[in-house]
Design a protein that fits this description.
The complex is a heterodimer of chains A (505) and B (630). Chain A has 505 residues and is mainly α. In chain A, 77% of the residues lie in helices and 3% in strands. A two-stranded antiparallel sheet of chain B has the order 1-2. At the A-B interface, helix 6, helix 12, helix 17, helix 18 and helix 21 of A face strand 1, helix 5, helix 6 and helix 24 of B.
Chain lengths: 505, 630
């Protein structure tokens, strides 16, 4: 029963994509397509909420729920194995929550709605697949599947330099995925040599060290870990592999940016925890310091670059680099609280960056530009949008009481007991983050509006823009005040990995 | 009642939510709603008072998340602060009802003020440092939003940003301290930390670092040198905000926190010495700036800085009771001064004290209440300011005599610049062309109430000392008191001589000490220095980083792409010219030959016949040749 539920959740968006495509072909009324897409995108969310109500919070860490495994291509040892735990559940929820919100937000899109919404739903399917797949082959399949709709979203609905951005995005992440694939093959072949079973089933592979005590030999781990890390690091993205991100964001349509920042970046973090740290804890410990340093460099470099941007969206893109640095830093500290904070950061940044890109997209739709230098005094003209922008920016700054603060606190609190100096350096990013957000607020939103802006009489928030922002805003506030549900879930998901890491030290 | 002490901040939260819901309809009446909340909170706190002041205390704590605690603690110290905050917030909301009459954006204003009051109450009630930090930051947000209330004014927007960022620097340092303490004691709950420290379970070096870091947060929030720069600019906010946040409550949160953690500071003499130095530098340095400034509210802001410096000195001299006493007195008279300033500015339409003059004629109530506050802050016996300042001077004298003498000089300056303010604004001839009139009742009623406290709150000195320490305090020496009285009298006399009787000319003095005057007017160029540094960092360095990112890091990526593209182009060329060339060459030969041969397949019968004949002939020849060979 529960396995079926997960299958429904996974393939409902795919079915939805087909329905929207066919429906949109039959009836070209924009209102119809929008309504259909919204209805179809709400179904997975409903299923997901139902699954949340069934979720077992008491299950010991390391066990999957809604788990099921079916042979798929038996001759190659490829299975269809899916399952959820505290690590993936928040991210799956994030995906299924964001899809209807993005559909709603895209209500003022005009260009080829049918294809647009079909691509969004395909993207949802791929993303959920990445987070639930527990078979290396299946995981890789979904991992690559995600690229395709995003590529077309950027190419079809993007800004002026969309060709360059789309191709750069695709090739860069694809090359990284191939390196990762080599690592995966190495693991599978090692497993074959050890056990005589040729399988891609991650659960089966990961259970071997647990029961027989044979884990990957160190020399092999030290080789495979960097391969997987490279694949995931490009996705996170970690400095110096981050340059595709600002380009992709600047050119992508708002809906695409929301998915890109909120969910796609988390694929890297998720893969790192689940596969790299989960299978090769010794290598993770071995490479902890370089990873932590990379994380700190990302935090500071991203923040400083955000300071330099004149394009609001590019600033937010660099802020994503900076905030994802916290993720890597927290994980690499190999300390329980910091690790949980890092994993929570994926969810928190998912919600907050979605809001960030939404307010930025709405601003551009309404005013026609998002260049800070051309703006100024927006708050006088668009008071409601500005109010929610201030909220969002402060959530991203990490104001206590909002969700952004919780992972930061956990990471710093945990990391400090491991390495005081690195933690203090990492904390400097808190100041720079506040600086670029407040400076942007001062220049773009405060001050006197230009005559041009006043004449234009731009639209303030409309209902289909307010609803997504409100839903996310309430979540950010409620979970910021009372984070126990989400932190408990994350702790349940990461517990066994932390045990593995701790067992190694 | 004591069991329900955690309800104290709740009314403010409820009225905050009601304001958010109905503020649009209520408009200015939100002030009354807010007052309901603060009055209820005040009453609740008052109801706890009998039990708490007889020695009971109450706490409540529960797990928040990830084994971190969230809790409330009510004891004498926190109750005194709760009463003070709720009381002042009520008066200031009443004042805002009058002051904000013609403003728009009232929903925003009142909601933010109430959020501030709520978080201030929770800072005071917190039973652990982390929770205090959380609401400390939310106070910072409210301060940011309220300084930038008139966000369309570029100066207000800049001041708001400056305030948040400067305090943020202190806050991050403080968070380091909190995490360090958490690391040392396994908890940041006050009771746990203090008992652990009392039991000696600490490393002195790290405890010193931790207390220094905590004090770093205080330097930011309570605007001590070198992070004092934000407070004068914060005067861009509406006057009720300046009175509530930037004079009476928020800037005191740091003092309160130090008082809470007082035993830790007592264990780290180096930190205490550092506090003495910082407090003295701030007190004297900012008092000097107050002497030359012309802006009514800015003078008061410098004076706030200076008085906060006194409190920090007192903490550094390890007499936190004196700091709390001065905190209370200062809250009364400085709130009064700010509200009076608002009334005067409202009446004259200018901030420049030299454009006011003779205002007492038009604003009797404002003028007289400000006089009450002035004598109190100047430290004239027997008014409130005198008592607490005397305690601080005594503590400083016992801890470090040089600090005492510098503070005595600061006392003199305080009396001087406060009376300068009073004489220039309210006495003498009318200098600006304003239509003076007294402000409305909601604005002056709080002034009248506060003037009683400003004059008389010194009477509470002994009571509060007994409450906090359990015994009365008797001075071992009277020298500091005598010196301070003399200093005050000299200060007032000088001020009167210059600004009331015009015996000396202020301008001449300014000319005589022109470099000093310029230095003070430019605030020692510290602001300018910070601006330079932040410009270099935020613009120059960030641009450089951007260029590196664009051309080096991304350049590498593009280079790889370009190399690949070049390789691909070469492959295409090779494929086309060499591999495909061979095949095409072969085809060319074949098809060329075919084309040549086509000529002979012209369709003419004679031609074919001829060819057949030739063929037969050749075959015959071959056959013959073959036979002959055989």
């Amino acid at each position: 029963m529960s396995f079926d539920l997960l299958n429904i959740l996974l393939f409902l968006p795919l079915l939805g994509a087909a329905v929207v495509f066919v429906g949109g072909t039959l009836n070209k009324q924009p209102a119809f397509i929008k309504g259909l897409a919204l209805a179809v995108s709400l179904l997975p969310l409903a299923v997901n909420l139902y699954m949340l109500s069934l979720y077992d919070w008491q299950l010991p860490s390391g066990n999957y729920q809604f788990f099921g495994s079916v042979n798929w291509i038996a001759s190659l040892g490829i299975t269809y194995t899916v399952g959820l735990d505290g690590l993936s559940m928040p991210l799956v929820f994030l995906t299924s929550l964001l899809t209807p919100l993005v559909v709603l937000l895209s209500y003022d899109e005009h260009k080829d709605l049918r294809t647009f919404f079909t691509l969004l739903l395909l993207l949802e399917c791929g993303l959920i697949g990445v987070f639930v797949a527990l078979d290396f082959f299946l995981f890789y399949l979904f991992w690559e599947l995600v690229l395709i709709p995003m590529y077309f979203l950027i190419l079809g609905w993007g800004g002026p330099r969309r060709r360059y951005a789309a191709i750069k995005f695709f090739i860069y992440t694809h090359v990284a995925s191939l390196v990762m694939l080599v690592g995966i093959f190495a693991i599978v072949i090692w497993n074959f040599q050890q056990t005589g079973i040729f399988t891609f089933d991650f659960v089966a592979i990961s259970e071997i060290p647990r029961f027989s005590g044979v884990s990957l030999p160190l020399s092999l781990q030290y080789l495979i870990f960097p391969a997987l890390f490279f694949g995931f690091a490009v996705k996170i993205p970690t400095v110096p592999f981050h340059t595709w991100l600002p380009d992709a964001h600047v050119e992508a349509p708002t809906g695409g940016s929301v998915f890109l920042a909120a969910v796609m970046l988390k694929m890297g973090g998720y893969g790192l925890v689940r596969f790299a740290f989960g299978l090769m804890p010794e290598a993770a410990v071995h490479y902890a310091l370089p990873m932590a340093v990379l994380g700190i460099i990302s935090m500071l470099w991203g923040a400083v670059l955000a300071l330099a941007q004149d394009d609001l969206k590019k600033m937010i893109a660099y802020s994503s680099v900076s905030h994802m640095g916290l993720l890597l830093f927290g994980m690499a500290m190999l300390q329980e609280r910091a690790f949980n904070g890092a994993v929570l950061q994926m969810f928190a940044h998912g919600l907050i960056s979605a809001m960030l890109f939404m307010v930025c997209g709405i601003l551009q739709h309404s005013v026609g530009t998002r260049r800070i230098g051309d703006l100024g005094g927006v708050a006088s003209v668009l008071p409601r949008l500005s109010a929610i922008t201030v909220f969002t920016f402060f959530a991203s700054v990490g104001l206590p009481g909002l969700l952004g603060f919780i992972p930061e606190l956990q990471v710093f609190l945990g990391a400090f007991s491991v390495n005081k100096l690195l933690t203090v350096i990492a904390m400097l990013s808190m100041i720079v983050t506040a600086a670029y957000y407040l400076w942007a607020l001062e220049r773009a939103y405060f001050g006197q509006p230009s005559a041009d802006l006043q004449e234009k009489k731009p639209h303030d928030l409309q209902w289909f823009q307010t609803v997504p922002l409100l839903v996310l805003g309430v979540l950010v506030l409620v979970l910021g005040v009372w984070p126990a549900p989400i932190t408990d879930m994350v702790a349940q998901g990461t517990g066994y990995i932390i045990d593995l890491l701790g067992g190694v030290r | 009642m004591l069991g329900y002490f955690w309800l104290i901040p709740l009314p403010v939260l409820v009225t905050l939510l009601l304001t958010l819901l109905f503020g649009k309809q209520l408009g200015l009446k939100s002030a009354w709603l807010g007052m309901c909340g603060t009055v209820l909170s005040f009453c609740l706190a008052l109801a706890c008072a009998p039990a708490v002041f007889t020695g009971e205390s109450a706490s409540l704590s529960f797990t928040w998340f990830d084994n971190l605690q969230f809790g409330f603690l009510l004891d004498k110290l926190s109750l005194i602060l709760l009463l003070l905050v709720a009381f002042l917030a009520t008066l200031i909301l009443l004042y805002a009802y009058g002051y904000m009459e013609h403003e728009s954006g009232l929903l925003r204003f009142f909601a933010e003020v109430q959020l501030f009051v709520f978080s201030m109450l929770l800072v005071v009630l917190a039973d652990n440092l982390l929770q205090a930090f959380i609401f400390w930051e939310i106070m910072g947000l409210c301060s940011y939003l309220l300084i930038g209330f008139w966000f369309f004014k570029p100066s207000a927007a800049a001041a708001a940003k400056k305030a948040f960022l400067v305090t943020r620097v202190g806050d991050v340092v403080m968070l380091v301290g909190i995490i360090l303490l958490f690391d040392m004691f396994g908890s940041v709950e006050y009771s746990v930390m203090l008992s652990q420290a009392a039991a000696g379970n600490y490393d002195e070096f790290w405890l010193t670092i931790a207390t220094l870091c905590i004090f770093g947060g205080v330097i930011g929030k309570s605007a001590q040198f070198p992070l004092h720069v934000w407070l004068p600019d914060a005067m861009e906010g509406p006057t009720p905000v300046s009175a509530l946040i930037h004079a009476a409550t928020m800037v005191k949160a740091g003092i309160y926190l130090c008082a809470r953690l007082f035993p830790l500071f007592a264990l780290t003499p180096n930190t205490a010495d550092f506090m003495l130095i910082i407090g003295t530098v701030t007190a004297l340095g900012t008092a000097l700036m107050a002497v030359v400034n012309r802006d009514f509210k800015r003078i008061l802001a410098f004076s706030t800085l200076s008085q906060l410096g006194f409190m920090v000195v007192s903490l550094g001299a390890l007499n936190y009771v004196a700091a709390i006493l001065h905190l209370i007195n200062h809250a009364f008279f400085k709130a009064l001064l700010f509200m009076g300033a608002g009334s005067a500015i409202h009446g004259t339409g200018t901030n420049d004290i030299y454009e006011m003059g003779g205002l007492l004629k038009y604003q009797k109530v404002t003028g007289l209440t400000i006089l009450c506050a002035t004598v109190s802050i100047a430290g004239l016996p027997p008014f409130a300011g005198f008592w607490s300042k005397d305690e601080i001077l005594l503590a400083a004298y016992l801890a470090a005599p040089p600090v005492f003498w510098l503070l005595a000089l600061t006392s003199l300056l305080t009396a001087f610049y406060m009376f300068r303010l009073f004489f220039v604004v309210f006495c003498g001839p009318k200098r600006g062309d304003y239509h003076g009139h007294e402000s409305s009742v909601p604005m002056i009623a709080p002034l009248v109430v506060l003037s009683f406290f400003a004059l008389g709150s010194g009477a509470l000195t002994q009571t509060i000392t007994v409450l906090l320490t359990g015994h009365t305090h008797s001075a071992s020496t009277h020298l500091p008191m005598i010196v301070s009285i003399f200093a005050v009298i000299i200060g007032i006399g000088l001020s009167a001589a210059v600004y009331l009787f015009n015996i000396f000319s202020a301008d001449k003095a300014a000319k005589a000490a022109a470099p000093l005057h310029k230095l003070l007017l430019n605030r020692y160029y510290i602001d300018r220095l910070y601006e330079k540094i932040s410009y270099w960092f935020a613009v120059r360095f960030a641009e450089l980083a951007d260029v590196i990112d664009k051309y080096v890091i991304d350049g590498l990526v593009n280079l790889v792409a370009r190399v690949n593209l070049g390789l691909a182009t070469f492959c295409r060329w090779f494929d086309y010219c060499v591999v495909d060339g061979l095949i095409r060459g072969f085809c060319f030969v074949v098809s060329g030959f075919g084309g040549y041969m086509r000529r002979y397949a012209s369709g003419g019968l004679q031609g074919y016949l001829a060819l057949v004949l030739v063929g037969v002939f050749v075959l015959l020849l071959v056959a013959i040749g073959g036979v002959s060979l055989l």
